[in-house]
Each structure stands twice: as C-alpha cells, then as structure tokens.
Amino acid sequence: MNIPQPNAKPCEKAVVRDEWIDLYGHMNMAYYVKLLDDLGHRILEQFGLGEGYTRERNCGLFTVEANLKYLREVSAGDPLRVELTPLRFDEKRLVTQVELFHDEQNYLSATMQQTAVHVNLDTRKVCPFGDEAKDRLRKMMGAYASGDWSTLKPASCAQLPST
C-alpha cells in the first residue's frame, strides 16, 4: 500500500502486465507510450488539468508532438513509477517531460517529451488557456521549480488497477 508523503513529488504507479510483453521478453514499445501518456494525464489531474478540467471546461490537451527515448528494458511483473515535469507553457501550448522508472530498482527506463496544445472540444480548434488554467500551470511550474508540492493537491502515487 502506498501512503502519500506530505511533500512528495506527484507520480503514478503501475506493474508491467504479462500481455504487455513482446517476443523479445520485455515490455513492447507501444505500452511505454500508453503508460507515459495515460499516467501523465492522471498526474495532470492532480493539478486540476486532467479529465475533470476537460469535462468542466470542454477543453483539453491534444498531443501534437512526442519524442520517446527507450533507455532500459522492463519485464513482466516489474513495478513502475511515472513522473511528469512541466518544462514550459505559453498561451496555447504545454511542454512536459514524462519519465518512467523501475520503482524498486529506481532506474530510468524511458522518457517522453511531449508538446500538447489547448483545444476547444466544440470547435476542435486550438484556443488560449483561460485565466484559471494559466494560474494552475503557473502554480505547477512554481512547485516543480521549488520542489514544494504542499500547496497543490496531494500526490497520490496511486497504483494502476491490474484489471
């Protein structure tokens, strides 16, 4: 059981499933992308910029570019931890670095730098972040710059359901 630390960096956790393993005995590349993207969105939810934001504002983040680096393989049953770091944002874009770690051995397995644009889901067009979203992004950037996440939603570092 994971007990969030009072000032822990926000993260999400998962365990490599047997069905994610390919012919070579390690996690298939497609699952790296899926985990980094899915769990990255769950971390953004902790900052008020995930699914709740999308449902409330009818706006969301569409990935327009992703650069993935595979650094070290992981295998079935390995515990994983995903961390997201905001790198920069402007009126319409958010650039993040999402990292996948082996949670017990603490090695970095993969990274994905991702550029997302803010989109109005009614018009399907890129639009500026609203003032509330920009405030959330500034708070998120400040928390990462200082290493103090205590003013934000508590980090869950929750386990991804195995079903």
Write the layout of secondary structure elements.
Elements: E1 11-15, H1 29-46, H2 51-57, E2 59-70, E3 79-89, E4 93-102, E5 108-120, E6 125-126, H3 131-146, E7 158-159
Which fold name corresponds to the CATH topology?
Answer: Thiol Ester Dehydrase, Chain A
The poorly predicted ranges are 1-6
Radius of gyration, whole Å: 16 Å
Distance between the termini: 17 Å
User: Structural class from helices and strands?
Assistant: alpha+beta
CATH class: Alpha Beta
- Seen as an oligomer or otherwise, the chain set is single chain
Mean pLDDT: 90
Largest sheet: 7 strands, mixed
Helix content: 25-40%
What is the overall number of helices? 3
Overview of the structural elements:
The structure is a single chain. The protein has 163 residues and is an alpha+beta fold. The protein has a single domain (11-144), classed as Hotdog Thioesterase (Thiol Ester Dehydrase, Chain A). The chain is built from 3 helices and 7 strands; from the N terminus they run E-H-H-E-E-E-E-E-H-E. It has helices spanning 29-46, 51-57, 131-146, and strands at residues 11-15, 59-70, 79-89, 93-102, 108-120, 125-126, 158-159. Strands 1, 2, 3, 4, 5, 6 and 7 form a 7-stranded mixed sheet that branches. It is globular and about 45 Å long. Mean pLDDT is 90; it is low at 1-6.
